[in-house]
Amino acid sequence: NAGVTQTPKFQVLKTGQSMTLQCAQDMNHEYMSWYRQDPGMGLRLIHYSVGAGITDQGEVPNGYNVSRSTTEDFPLRLLSAAPSQTSVYFCASRRGPGNGEKLFFGSGTQLSVL
Amino acid sequence: QQQVKQSPQSLIVQKGGISIINCAYENTAFDYFPWYQQFPGKGPALLIAIRPDVSEKKEGRFTISFNKSAKQFSLHIMDSQPGDSATYFCAASTKAAGNKLTFGGGTRVLVKP
């Protein structure tokens, strides 16, 4: 039972570098999302997808891109990393977009931008 | 502007005591209120959830109390155990906004043996 798998677990970037955070789920979930977690701010939604080929912006989308070419994968791209993007990133999925569906989280990627 | 405000930010309780975490919201369209539990180095996991047509829901030692008129809900952890030491997040969502979860700021709970 892999659930939601995120790679890498840790990453250090220099300002201006680009990178992709990987997320994969093996539960055939339609809905996938990315959150960032900052102290005192809780979890804030970056981008989400309700199915392959469909993505939309969340609360804090600036500086991030996503795509959803398959049901299983939902990568998050940082085009030009900034120190403000230092955070812990969580990918999450659920069976469908419906209210009350349990959200399953990955174990997170800790990103530092110097 | 946080739509869901959570307090306190941290809490220390003795083993066997009661932990109480409070959340307040502004959006009256919210219709689903889950609580998530997060251990260090792990992702959050759903603990318990409630809908606004119910004033209380209990699962084991965890109880959600919901006050629709005050736009507040709270998590009570009865007989707190050291294994309950974690960060707890309240959240809310509404069908009108695509059921996207809005999280509170989190409460770090430490249960002392």
What's the helix and strand layout?
The complex is a heterodimer of chains A (114) and B (113).
Chain A: E1 4-7, E2 10-13, E3 19-25, E4 31-38, E5 42-51, E6 54-57, E7 64-66, E8 76-78, E9 87-94, E10 104-105, E11 109-113
Parallel strand pairs in A: 2-11
Antiparallel strand pairs in A: 1-3, 3-8, 4-5, 4-9, 5-6, 7-8, 9-10, 9-11
Chain B: E1 4-7, E2 10-14, E3 19-25, E4 33-38, E5 45-50, E6 56-59, E7 62-67, E8 72-77, E9 86-92, E10 102-103, E11 107-112
Parallel strand pairs in B: 2-11
Antiparallel strand pairs in B: 1-3, 3-8, 4-5, 4-9, 6-7, 7-8, 9-10, 9-11
Name the descriptors.
heterodimer; A: 114 residues; mainly beta; 7-stranded mixed β-sheet; 4-stranded antiparallel β-sheet; 11 strands; B: 113 residues; 6-stranded mixed β-sheet; 5-stranded antiparallel β-sheet; 0% helix; 52% strand
The biggest sheet of chain A, with number of strands, parallel, antiparallel or mixed sense and barrel status, is: 7 strands, mixed
End-to-end CA span of chain B = 37 Å
Estimate the mean pLDDT confidence of chain A: 94
Secondary-structure-based class of chain B equals mainly beta
- Portion of residues in helices of chain B? under 10%
Q: Kindly provide the radius of gyration of chain B, computed on alpha-carbon positions and rounded to a whole number of angstroms.
A: 13 Å
| SSE pattern of chain B, N- to C-terminal | EEEEEEEEEEE
> What general outline of chain B do the C-alpha atoms trace?
globular
